[in-house]
Each structure stands twice: as C-alpha cells, then as structure tokens.
Design a protein that fits this description.
By secondary structure, the protein is mainly β. It contains no helices and two strands.
C-alpha cells in the first residue's frame, strides 16, 4: 500500500458519485477545501 506524506499533493483518482457519475480529484484543483466521505455500502 502506498504511504501518505505530509505537505505533498494528493494523487489524482476518479470514483463514481452516488448517481454513478465519474468525479476526479483534479476537478477540484484550486478549491480551498475538499471533503471526501467514503461510506460503506448498505444492503
């Protein structure tokens, strides 16, 4: 598993949102804050 270092840029990644649309971290470049929430699936 890759390690995270402080004060370095996060690697770009793409995940699907709750509607199935692809969202990339790079889409938020220049924003002051980005909050990521990883929910576990409930069946």
């Amino acid at each position: 598993m890759a390690q995270v270092s402080l004060n370095t840029a996060a690697p770009d990644f793409t995940l699907n949102d709750y509607k199935g649309n692809a969202v990339s971290l790079s889409q938020f470049k220049g924003e002051k804050n980005v909050l990521l929430v990883f929910n576990r699936g409930f069946f």
